[in-house]
Write a structure and sequence with these properties.
nine-stranded antiparallel beta sheet; mainly beta; 1 helix
Length: 180
């Protein structure tokens, strides 16, 4: 324990002399958003939400938070295919007034599920579920408008799956800002 305490004190002293002009970055506020839209391949309608912290960095604002999206589609034979994405989302505001332009990327876990129903001649139904856990990257751009504490926009995103079918998606987004 004494060794850890000494190492901590040395770290603090070195940090104070090595970075004297660096100011701490404090969040300017948070954003809560909801999105809904359509994927172009394999998956259909989808929706979700996100929570983002806004961090000032001079001219631009950096956004860091969490986001979840769920896509669902029907397949032949009374089956369905779904995709759940959940992870971290980050971005930077390129233009903020009067039009809002934000570049974004999300990364995290994805769960691709497919449920098929087989019906035999003797009226026996068999449900087969296949689930693939994988990772995703979700780059995109949002173009919108800020209306006071509320913002609205359209997002174009590409869902790149490590395993599974990658696709493009378009979402309508509405959210509100809390804080500065």
């Amino acid at each position: 324990m004494p060794g850890k305490r000494l190492a901590y004190r040395i770290f603090i002293v070195v940090s104070l002399f090595a970075f004297p002009a660096v100011e701490p970055v404090h969040a300017q506020g948070a954003e809560f958003s909801f999105h809904g839209g359509q994927a172009l391949n394999e998956y259909e309608r989808g929706g979700g939400g996100g929570v983002i912290l806004n961090l000032p960095s001079g001219i631009r604002t950096i956004h860091v938070g969490a986001r979840a999206t769920y896509h669902l589609s029907t397949i032949e034979g009374d089956g369905e295919k779904s995709l759940l994405l959940y992870g971290v989302d980050a971005g930077v505001t390129l233009v903020s007034s009067p039009i809002l332009v934000r570049a974004m990327i999300g990364v995290g876990r994805a769960q691709d599920s497919e449920e098929t129903v087989n019906q035999e001649d003797d009226d026996t139904r068999t449900v087969i579920t296949r689930t693939t856990d994988t990772y995703y990257a979700h780059p995109g751009v949002m173009i919108g408008m800020s209306l006071g504490i509320v913002f609205v926009g359209l997002e174009g995103r590409y869902i790149s799956l490590d395993k599974g079918v990658s696709t493009s998606a378009v979402y309508a987004t509405v959210g509100f800002k809390v804080g500065r």
